[in-house]
């Protein structure tokens, strides 16, 4: 069911100007019944000016009259035939002004660590344009020397689930195209959840490979252990009792 414009302001107007029950207003505006009660008590939407749904062509007066007479009557939003079939506008994600300066750093991070992502995917993730992505990818951006790659999730430009979904989509496309992938490419195509849950066995570096099987030779293993006693350590040479340092 469609909801009216400025739902909270509409609820304020209905509470102030009608005798419709809280539940009817809550169902019409998409709010909780306790919120409507809070509006009536002055605890919610304090200072919000009421929005007349009748004057703004969202509700017929006959609907309000019927709802006041019967608490079971559900308010119906006015039908707009011209709005039927209208699609939501598509475009890049809106980025707040305070975070727009961070977009180049996030684009550089995505281009560096996920080069398999298409420009359209990057544009959707961080809310930028394709010319900007191309300039950073080709290192022709005017400030490329001062841009440091930063994870867009850490910057708050997108969610980790959205990034993982884009990576998985790129992985599926890479698999359909075929061709061998390097270990580094395969690692980059893993989502964060998969990489953290990977329980692969640890590998021994190539430089020390084979040392884990190193054993002592048979001669050293079979040789009896040499015994030592205290006298062998303190067996000092005999010397004259009366001789001094000058031999006198």
Secondary structure blueprint with pairings:
Blueprint: H1 7-17, H2 22-29, H3 33-41, H4 61-69, H5 103-113, H6 119-126, H7 130-137, H8 152-155, H9 160-177, H10 183-188, H11 192-197, H12 218-222, H13 230-233
Helix pairs in contact: 1-2, 2-3, 5-7
Helix content: 40-55%
- Beta content comes to under 5%
The profile of the biggest β sheet is:
none
Note poorly predicted spans: 199-209, 211-216
Overall, the morphology is elongated
Count of DSSP strands: 0
* Tally of helical segments: 13
The overall pLDDT average reads 75
The ordered H/E elements are HHHHHHHHHHHHH
Over all CA atoms, what is the radius of gyration? 39 Å
How does the helix and strand content classify structurally? mainly alpha
Task: Quote the distance from N terminus to C terminus.
Answer: 121 Å
